[in-house]
Amino acid sequence: MNRREVLLLLAGTAALPDELLAMGRAVHQKIRAGTLRALTPQQNETVATIAELIIPKTDTPGAREAGVPAFIDVMLAEWADDEQRQMFTGGLANVDERSRTAFGKNFVGGTPQQQTQILEDLDYELARLRDTKSDTSKNFFSAMKWLTLTGYYTSEVGSTSELHYRVVPGRYEPCYSLEQP
């Protein structure tokens, strides 16, 4: 999925309304405290690795640089209920289990190709759920992708460098003379 497709996906979910941007900014402001609230350090590194594979650094910053892992931690701590947190952390454990079964090491210890293969498998399973019109609300990878995209595109980096979002475009000139000098 390229970044234009991501924008279309976000547009389809709410056209990135001011409410979503405001929520994102509020969560990103809480991140500055710097401590993990819902995730362990290992889980956080898994989240960071997955998020960076979803939105890698290119000519624009990637998910890590945009603060997506910390955004997800705050969202899990303050917005998710216990069932959602358990679903998410269970999904992270499943990612490590898949990696250990396939490659003999945890997800973060795998090569980028191995990590990508696991994410492609998760994405394929999510696509199958969507194809059969099944409920995807309790699917880890669906939640991971949504949190990653929301965290990235509501961050200062994502909204300014990717979306070119400006609250007030141009400059403000309150007393502009109509007569030419």
Describe this structure in words.
The protein has 181 residues and is mostly helical. The protein has one domain. The protein has helices spanning 3-14, 18-31, 41-54, 68-78, 82-103, 112-131, 140-153, 156-162. Helix 4 packs across helix 7 (140-153). The longest helix has 22 residues, at 82-103. The protein is globular.
Shape: globular
What structural category arises from helix and sheet content? mainly alpha
Average pLDDT score: 83
* Largest sheet properties: none
Taken as a percent bin, the fraction of beta residues is under 5%
Total helical elements: 8
What is the H-and-E element order? HHHHHHHH
Count of DSSP E strands? 0
Helix content: 55-70%
Question: How far apart lie the N and C ends?
Answer: 53 Å
Could you say how many structural domains there are in total?
A: 1
Low-confidence runs: 1-15
Rg on CA atoms, Å: 19 Å
How would you concisely characterize the structure shown here?
The chain has helices at residues 3-14, 18-31, 41-54, 68-78, 82-103, 112-131, 140-153, 156-162.
Give the SSE map.
Layout: H1 3-14, H2 18-31, H3 41-54, H4 68-78, H5 82-103, H6 112-131, H7 140-153, H8 156-162
Key terms:
about 180 residues; mainly alpha; about 0% strand; globular
